[in-house]
Amino acid sequence: VWEESIILAPRSIQFLCLSATVPNICDLADWMSKVRKTEFHIIEEHHRPVPLSHYLFSAKYGLMTIKGVRKKYKKNYTERKKFLRRKASSHKIVKHLLSEDHLPALYFCFNRRACERNAELHCTRDLLTPDEHVRLREMVYRLVNQYGLQEYERLGQMRRLWESGCAYHHAGILPAAKEIVERLFTSGLIKLLFSTSTFALGVNMPARAVVFDQLEKFDGVDFNYLMTREYNQMAGRAGRRGMDDVGHVYAQVIPEATDPREVQRLHYGKNEKITSQFFASYSTILNLYTQFGDKMMDIFRMSYSNFTKGIFAQTKSYRREEIQIQNRIRFLQAAGFLDGTRLTPKGKLAAAVSGYEIQAAELYYSRSFENCPVEQLPVILAALVTEESRKNRETNPSHPLLTFEAEKIIKRLRRQEIRYKIDFPVNEMNFSLAAPVFAWTKGCSFADLQGFGFPEGDLIRLLRMTIQLLRTLRDKLPDPVISEKMHQAFELVNRDVVDAQAELEADLPGKDKEA
User: Fold this and answer.
1) 405 vs 376: CA distance, rounded Å
2) Less CB within 10 Å around the terminal CB: N or C of the chain?
3) Which contiguous run of DSSP H or E holds residue 229?
4) 487-493: long-range contacts (C-beta < 8 A, 24 or more apart)?
């Protein structure tokens, strides 16, 4: 996305780029200068206002050095595996933080349940002063009413944690509840926050100390050590400017099973270089091919993946992508999105949608939306958006024939992509969350929605993505009758806690008041 934005943005737009974790900044600036045909100035700052101190902590041995870990590390995998099963508790390291007066602390766990378990483990501690207790209760009361969370199922448990000075934060909870946690944390009323790594991205919420529950995390396939860039991104939350002389970074280790070479890399290694992830989307191809034809390839050849030693060259990685672009063009022509270099009506719709564009346009022009009841439309579109893998992939029992027909259309589209050797064909429709989506569309309460057993944060995100697709189709479809159906479906889904605009409007007075 960042490559497309830099390449395709109008020349009148100027860029200001900020990063703390990109080491190959000179190459990147050189590439941007040539792409934008303007000079980029690099400003580097190597002094950190609040320096960091890094520690290793073992529940068994206490504070350790890399040398100490090296002495106890078991090189034999069979021996090492015995120690891997012994998951370190957060109890002793939190006790150490308290004794060193290193709160507030941001404690990173790479698992949602671990965040919740750890917060519960420490909720018996009273980390707040009497005055802070009063401020917290007043703030929670106001924010709960502001966001309309009185019926929120987790509220009682969360309030109990908050009043102890502890909290957890992850993508599986309600967005408004995450906002409350963030507001309490930035107000200094949460002293111990257990969070997944997403808390380190895009928000400026530092603490006196940062703790890593472990230095390995699951990457979707296996457990691997963090990248240096990831470690530094999260560690960088330690140390509050103007408040702390030093930021403290702790990593929990089981020395017998922790590779000292990996610890050495994380503490002293350089951040990994940023690399090109260039991927020409269908909507980008449709929009550019109709304007430039085969000259479109000259634009794509300006990607960062095609830039080395200060010049644009046919690199191996780019050549693979160019073959894929040609395959996508042939597919778009065969599937009726392109007539030569001209957009067909189906291609015009796909170019306008941008995001699940091929699937949405195919379903519309196969007339799948015509006979679909309004309350079924969100179920169909949510099945395009759903990316979670669930063992029990269910369809909506109310209209099985309609969902089956839509599934057949998308499967056919996917098979056609595969014939044209598309590396990443569109996903099959996933109806694993059809039941809660359909219930919400039919008017169920948020309390009822929670009863389906899925993390409410994930459901809200899915419903909001569905709303975005409904809104886009409502505005872009050429048929006013189907467009009106999309609008009716949009209004069925966009209500209560799912309505992001209403949440934002409820939030503004509170922020103004605090400011």
Assistant:
1) 13
2) C
3) helix 228-235
4) 488/374, 489/374, 489/375, 489/377, 489/378, 489/441, 492/374, 492/375, 492/378, 492/441, 492/443, 493/378, 493/440, 493/441, 493/463, 493/466, 493/467
Question: How far apart, in whole angstroms, are the C-alpha atoms of residue 470 and residue 467?
Answer: 5
Condensed to tens digits (0 to 9), the pLDDT of residues 208-261 reads: 999 999 998 877 677 789 999 999 999 999 999 999 999 999 999 999 989 999
Residue 83 burial class via C-beta count within 10 angstroms: exposed 0-12, middle 13-18, buried 19 and up: middle
Taking every pair of Cα atoms in the chain, the longest distance, rounded to a whole number of angstroms, is 73
Residue in the block written with tokens 């994380």: 266
Rounded CA gap, 386 and 396, in Å? 14
pLDDT in tens, 283-326: 889 988 888 888 888 888 999 989 988 898 888 888 888 999 99
* Nearest residue to 478 (alpha-carbon basis) of 342, 349, 286, 290: 349
The pLDDT value given to residue 4: 86
Cα 327–34–27 angle (5° rounding)?
Answer: 90
Tokens of 374: 């309004």
Q: Which residues pair with 58 in a beta bridge?
A: 62
Q: Which two tokens stand for residue 101?
A: 């007066």
- What are the structure tokens assigned to 456, written together? 């409410």
Tokens of 178: 């995450």
DSSP 494-513: S-GGG-HHHHHHHHHHHHHH
Q: What is the dihedral of CA 472, 476, 482, 488, to 10 degrees?
A: 40
Residue tagged 């196969």 (tokens): 366
